[in-house]
C-alpha cells in the first residue's frame, strides 16, 4: 500500500496554548481519512500546518514518500496538497470557470502572473486549461454555471466549486475543511456522492467534518483530536466505541 501523507509528531503552539501536540497521521493512497473532534480541538490548525499556512514547532512531513517542509502555501500546492477552506475562499467577482483555471495554473508553466498579464505563453495554454476547467465543473456537477460569477452561486455550489479548483491542481492529497458546513440534507447526499466518486477515481482525501454521520459513512479511518491531542485513531466503528472519544464529545456538549 502506498502512503500518501505521513506526519509524525506535528506540534503547534500559540502563546500559552498548545493547539497541536505530537499528532501522527498516515494516509494511504485511495483512502478517505477523517479528522474530527470538538470545537477548538485543533483540526484547522492541523490543516494549516500541513498546508504551509502555519509554521509548525515540530514534526516531520512526507508526501508521496518524499519529505516536504510545509513552509509556504504555494510550495505545498506544488508538492501536491490541495485544500478547501471552512470559510469559502473563492474569487467572488471571477466566474466559476476562471476560479478553476486559477487552480490549474499551479501546474502550468506560465503561472498566475502569466494569467494576469496574459503573456503569449499563457494564451497558448489557455484553451487547454479552459477545457480542463469545464470538465472539472461538469465533474462536480456545476458545469452549467461556468460563466456565473462565483458569488452568485448557492452556498453548496460554491463549496463544490472550491473542490473543482482543488482538483485542478492534480493533487496527491485533497484536504477538505468542513465541506458539508451549511449544506442542507439533499446537498449533503450529493456531496457524499461526489467525495465517493473522487475516491473511486483514485484520489486520496483528508476530511475535516462536523457531521459525524457523513464522516462515519465515508471514511476508511479517522483521527480524533481533543485539546490538540490525538485521543483516538482507527476505523469509524472503532473510534465510535472509544471511551475517550465519547467523553470528549459529551464534555463539549455535542452528541
Ligand atoms: N492563529 C491563531 N492564533 C491563536 N490561537 C489560535 C490560532 N488558530 C487557532 N488557535 C487556537 O487553537 C485552538 C485550536 O483551534 P482550531 O481552529 O484548530 O480548532 P478546530 O478543531 O478546527 O475547531 P472548529 O471545529 O471550531 O473549527 C483553539 O483554541 C484556537 O482558539
UniProtKB/TrEMBL annotation:
GO molecular function: ATP binding; ATP hydrolysis activity; L-isoleucine transmembrane transporter activity; L-phenylalanine transmembrane transporter activity; L-valine transmembrane transporter activity
One Pfam family it belongs to: ABC_tran
The entry's keywords: ATP-binding, Cell membrane, Membrane, Nucleotide-binding, Transport
Domain ABC transporter intervals: 5-252
GO CC annotations, alphabetized: plasma membrane
Cited SMART domains: AAA
PROSITE patterns (UniProt xref): ABC_TRANSPORTER_1 (PS00211), ABC_TRANSPORTER_2 (PS50893)
InterPro entries cross-referenced by the UniProt entry: AAA+_ATPase, ABC_AA/LPS_Transport, ABC_transporter-like_ATP-bd, ABC_transporter-like_CS, BCA_ABC_TP_C, P-loop_NTPase
Taxonomic superkingdom: Bacteria
GO BP, one annotated term: L-alanine transport
SUPFAM superfamilies found in the cross-reference section: P-loop containing nucleoside triphosphate hydrolases
Protein's name according to its UniProt entry: ABC transporter ATP-binding protein
Amino acid at each position: 500500500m502506498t502512503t500518501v501523507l505521513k506526519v509524525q509528531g506535528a506540534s503547534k503552539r500559540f502563546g500559552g496554548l498548545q493547539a497541536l501536540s505530537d499528532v501522527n497521521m498516515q494516509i494511504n493512497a485511495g483512502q478517505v481519512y477523517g479528522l474530527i473532534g470538538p470545537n477548538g480541538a485543533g483540526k484547522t490548525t492541523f490543516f494549516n500546518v500541513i498546508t504551509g499556512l502555519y509554521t509548525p514547532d515540530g514534526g516531520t512531513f512526507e508526501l508521496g514518500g518524499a519529505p516536504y517542509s510545509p513552509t509556504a502555501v504555494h510550495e505545498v500546492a506544488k508538492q501536491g496538497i490541495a485544500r478547501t477552506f471552512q470559510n469559502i475562499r473563492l474569487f467572488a467577482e471571477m466566474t466559476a470557470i476562471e476560479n478553476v483555471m486559477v487552480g490549474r495554473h499551479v501546474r502550468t508553466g506560465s503561472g498566475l502572473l502569466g494569467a494576469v498579464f496574459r503573456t503569449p505563453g499563457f494564451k497558448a495554454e489557455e484553451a487547454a486549461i479552459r477545457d480542463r476547467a469545464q470538465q472539472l465543473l461538469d465533474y462536480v456537477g456545476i458545469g452549467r454555471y461556468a460563466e456565473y460569477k462565483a458569488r452568485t452561486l448557492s452556498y453548496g455550489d460554491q463549496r463544490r466549486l472550491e473542490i473543482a479548483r482543488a482538483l485542478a491542481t492534480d493533487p496527491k492529497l485533497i484536504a477538505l475543511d468542513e465541506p458539508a458546513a451549511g449544506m442542507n440534507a439533499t446537498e449533503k447526499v450529493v456531496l457524499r456522492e461526489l467525495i465517493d466518486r473522487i475516491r473511486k477515481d483514485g484520489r486520496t482525501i483528508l476530511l475535516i467534518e462536523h457531521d459525524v454521520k457523513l464522516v462515519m459513512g465515508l471514511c476508511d479511518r479517522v483521527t480524533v483530536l481533543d485539546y490538540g491531542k490525538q485521543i483516538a485513531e482507527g476505523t469509524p466503528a472503532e473510534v465510535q466505541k472509544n471511551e475517550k472519544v465519547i467523553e470528549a464529545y459529551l464534555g463539549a456538549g455535542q452528541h
